[in-house]
Amino acid sequence: MRKNMTQVTPPAPLLEKGAGGDFKIKRAKSLKLPMTRKDALDLHVGDVVLIKGLLVTGRDKLHKYLCKERPPKEVIPFNLDGTILYHCGPIIEKTPKDYRFIAGGPTTSMRVEMYEAQIIAEYGIRGVMGKGGMGRQTLGALRKYGCVYLHTIGGAAVYLASRVKRVSGVWKLEEFGMTEAMWILQVNDFPAIVTMDAHGKSLHDEIEMSSRTVLKKLLRLHQV
Asked: pTM of this prediction?
């Protein structure tokens, strides 16, 4: 006979209770860019957002360049104040007139953990977006400077591309290549979840602690 079965409940901040007692995903908030510090502080872990406005992409090479070379803001062909830095290596097609966004899902954010806090401090971004969350150094910077981390959908690169309405520009394309360049994207209703906020909370930490608790219970059951 099976006994003391451990149940795992989805993280509470992502859910709200409906009239019938069933849980459902929270209603999405509209998030317009650029953000202010107040906008970032109004967001909390578990908030589902639909992003509208101009954001930029950036992966390993761009992060390293911004931290090591520290180019002044005037050199970058886009004002980073209040925008979101999206960890993404997109596939983009050159057309006779401009560019067409083909696919662009999130990359693992921890790859740039050693750079992110400095970029938040020096370039005024209000959001970092990718997948998997980030470490304590970045969490501290989010709290200090008023910034949030957003987790978007992995494995849905083509769907996310449909949320990109226009490629507005590019920086460092010849030097870094297509996937590592900074692309400036006009997005509409781009979906994401706040998983690290400007108040020092991290959903990734909560899930890790919850998983450890469940694992300990399972190990105790196995020893019975």
From this structure: 0.82
